[in-house]
Amino acid sequence: MNAKAVLSKPNPRVLIVNDDGIDAPGIVLLEEIVRQFTDDIWVVAPDEERSGAGHSLSLSYPIRIRQRDERHFAVKGTPTDYALLGVYELLGDRKPDLLLSGINRGPNLAEDITYSGTASAAIEGAMLGIPSIALSQIWSYNTPVHWETARHYTAQILPGLIDMAWTQGSFVNVNFPHCPLDEVTGVRVTTQGMRPPGSFRPMRRVDERHVPYYWIKIAFPDGGAAEGNDLAAARDKAVSITPMQLDMTAYDQLDAMRARFERAGIVQPA
Fold first, then answer.
1. Partners of 134 in the β-ladder
2. 270 in any annotated domain
3. Gap between the Cα atoms of 218 and 116, Å rounded
4. The model scores a pTM over 0.85
5. Which of 53, 83, 152, 270 is within CB 3.0–4.6 Å of 117 for a Cys-Cys bond?
6. For the chain, what is the domain count?
């Protein structure tokens, strides 16, 4: 789908979702920014935080919706549910011209994409043929959230992202650096990085009945920042814009894998 006409068309329709909650500061800020471009904005977001939900669906239990007003809906479900409900049910007969997910409080860099509810809502938008952008403000526990950085650069980069030709099955992942606005070193178009293993670990606890339970601890290991990737941009206090796609085929392994199984007589020669 070519999104070039999104901003130029009269009052484009925008669906905003997130995984931090319908009242989270990031989604409130994003709606405020998008009002510079249109007033046809619809918000479908969780009634409570759903971080780490990934690209999951609510298949085994009903999805409950609480309508806040004409265009704001709080949902008990997953970020993928919010995208589906917005597109197929809540926005009526006209689909959104653009889906925006965020602004997330916390990073969605490197392999975070596989866990991220923020990114997964954008993935679902891409699957539905809608230009979709995930936005995240990098943040660390017990530190300030630099929303002014996200505010400034969201307004700056959105027109450029929307005014481009989108490849079918693609979406964009944006991360704003964890620093004040005056420390940002620039904007980079990046590749997806990959950290060393060990970002998430189960931590054992014992309750008052001496029964063990676990929390998943987040502790990103050092490493993985390479020239041109999103981790390097974050390290250097730069905004990263990463074009991504749904096709996860490892093309560089196809020929070797095919040849291996052809020699074994398992796969017929092409």
1. 101, 173
2. no
3. 13
4. yes
5. 53
6. 1
In a domain, 206, yes or no: no
Domain that holds residue 68: 13-196+223-263
- The string of pLDDT tens digits covering residues 162-211 is 888 889 999 999 999 999 999 999 999 999 999 999 888 999 999 999 99
Interatomic CA distance for residues 222 and 219, integer angstroms: 9
Q: Which residues are annotated as a binding site for a divalent metal cation?
A: 19-20, 51, 104
> Which string of b and e fits 85-115 if b means at least 16 CB within 10 Å?
bbbeebbeeeebbbbbbbbbbbbbbbebbeb
Structural Rg of the chain based on CA atoms: 20
How far is 166 from 3, CA to CA, in rounded Å?
6
Q: Which amino acid is at 181?
A: L
177 located within any domain: yes
3-state SS, the chain, equals: CECCCCCCCCCCEEEEECCCCCCCHHHHHHHHHHCCCCCEEEEEEECCCCCCCCCCCCCCCCCEEEEEECCEEEEECCHHHHHHHHHHHHCCCCCCCEEEEEEEECCCCHHHHHCCHHHHHHHHHHHCCCCEEEEEECCCCCCCCCHHHHHHHHHHHHHHHHCCECCCCEEEEEEECCCCHHHCCEEEECECCCCCCCCEEEEEEECCCCCEEEEEEECCCCCCCCCCEHHHHHHCCEEEEEEEECCCCCHHHHHHHHHHHHHCCCCCCC
112-157 per-position pLDDT tens digit: 999 999 999 999 999 999 999 999 999 998 999 999 999 999 999 9
- Token duo for residue 77: 């479900």
Binding residues are 19-20, 51, 104
Residue 145: give its domain's CATH number.
3.40.1210.10
